[in-house]
Amino acid sequence: MPRQTLLSGTSFVGTFVLIFIALATLFATDTFLVRIERAEDQAEAGRLVAEGREMLRRGRYVEAAERFKDATSIDRDNRDYRLALAEALLAAKNYTEAESSLGDLLQKDSTDGNANLAMARVLVGEMKIAEGISFYHRAIYGRWRTDAAQNRLKVRFELVDLLARQNAKEELLAELLPLQDEASADLRTRTRIGELFLSAGSPARAADVFRDILRRDSQNAAAYSGLGEAEFARGNYQQARTDFLNASRLKPDNTAIRKRLELCEQIISLDPTRRGLASSERYQRSLKLVALALDEINNCSRTPALQDLLDSANKALKARVAELRQNAATETNLDLTEQLWQARGKDCGSPAPASDNALALVLAKIAQ
Questions:
Q1: pLDDT bracket for residue 45 (50, 70, 90)
Q2: Is residue 132 part of a domain?
Q3: Which CATH number is 256's domain given?
Q4: Domain boundary among 212, 238, 270
Q5: What is the rounded CA–CA span in Å between residue 315 and residue 173?
Q6: In the predicted model, what is the mean pLDDT of residues 312-331?
C-alpha cells in the first residue's frame, strides 16, 4: 500500500475521533447544563410550593394559589403540586378553577384518593351534593399512597358528617354500619358514632353504642347524655330522666343536660297515661294539658271555629266534675287538647318545632 494512502487513512480516523470527542464533550456539557437548569427549576418550584403552603397556613388562599400555579408551570408533571393548587383554589372558594384542575388530575388517574376527596369537597362547595357524595365514595375505595386505612376512615367520617347535615337519614345509616366496625375502639370515637346513629334516626343502635361505652367507663357523662337522648327519642321518658340525672350528676354545670332533664320531668308530670295513676290524678293532668294548649293559641287570630274551641276549653277548666265522671271527662279533655293543638297549627302561622315542647310530646305519646 502506498505510504501516502496510509497517512491519509490515519488522518481521517484521527479527525473522526477528534470530532467524536468534541461532540461527546458538547453533549456531556449540554446534558450537564440541562441537569443544572432542571435542578434549579425544581428548587424554584419547591420554594414556591413552600411559600404557598405557608400562605395557606396563614389563610392567604388567593396568594397561595398563585404560588402553586407558578410551581406547576415549572414542573407540569408533579401531581402533588397540582393537588396543592386545587386545594388552595378550594380554600379560596374558586370552585370552577379547582374543579378544572382536579379534572385534569383525575383524567390521568381516576383512582387517586386525595384527588377524589378534593373533588368531593369542591362539588359540595358548589352545592352539587349528590355528585360530591359519589366522589367521597371514590375516595374511600381509591388508592392512597400512605396510611390508606386511616385516610379511608377519615373520609368516611367526613361523608357521614355531610349526610348528617343534609338530614339524609337512610344514606347516613348505610354509611354508619360499616363505620361502626371499622372505627377505632377509643371512647371518643364511639361516642361520636352513637351521636351519628341518633342523627340517622336509629336510637336503638345509638343506645347499644352508649351502653357499651358505659360498660367500659361508668363515669362517662357524654355516654349517659347520649343514652338519655336515645331513650328520649324512643319515648322512654322515665328512663331518659334517669340517664340525664346521671349525666347531670357528673356534669352539674352543663345547661343543655339540665334542660333535657327538666323537659323529661315536665313530660312525666303531665302524662295522664302513666300506669298506677288514680282517676283523680289523670283528670287533673288532663286539665293541665287543656290549660297549656289554651296558652299556646291565646295570641292566635280568632276564627269562629277557634273561638268555639276556646269557649269549650274555658268551660272545661271551670267545670266541677264528680269523681264517678272523671274518667269520661279526662277523655273529653284529651280530645279537646288535641283539637286545640291542631288549631294552633292552622291559625297561628308557622308554629315553632314541637320536638322540645312538652305538650306536643305528651300528645304524641298519647296518640301511639
A1: low
A2: no
A3: 1.25.40.10
A4: 270
A5: 49
A6: 90
**DSSP designation for 301:** P
Q: End of a domain among 251, 270, 289?
A: 270
222: β partners: none
CA distance 270 to 11: 118
Domain count, the chain: 2
Query: Quick check: helix, strand or coil at residue 329?
Result: helix
| Helix then strand then coil, % of the chain, to nearest 5 | 80, 0, 20
Tell whether 102 is covered by a domain.
no
Q: What are the residues whose beta carbons fall under 8 Å from the beta carbon of 105, sequence distance 6 or more?
A: 79, 82, 83, 86, 112, 115
Instruction: Tell me the pLDDT tens digit for each residue of 326-366.
Output: 999 999 999 999 998 888 766 565 555 667 889 999 999 98
> Cβ–Cβ contacts within 10 Å for residue 311, how many?
10
Q: Which of 286, 287, 260, 280 is nearest to 326 (CA)?
A: 280
How far is it, in rounded angstroms, from Cα 367 to Cα 310?
22
Q: What's the mean per-residue pLDDT of the chain?
A: 86
177 found inside a domain: no
Nearest in space to 345 (alpha carbons), one of 323, 361, 360 = 360
> Quick one: what percent of the chain has pLDDT higher than 90?
53
DSSP assignment string, 183-248: S---HHHHHHHHHHHHHTT-HHHHHHHHHHHHHH-TT-HHHHHHHHHHHHHTT-HHHHHHHHHHHH
**Cell matching residue 51:** 411559600
Amino acid letter, 356: D
**For 54-111, what is each residue's pLDDT tens digit?**
887 888 888 888 887 887 878 777 888 888 888 888 999 999 999 999 998 999 999 9
Does an H or E element contain 176, and which? Answer: helix 169-182
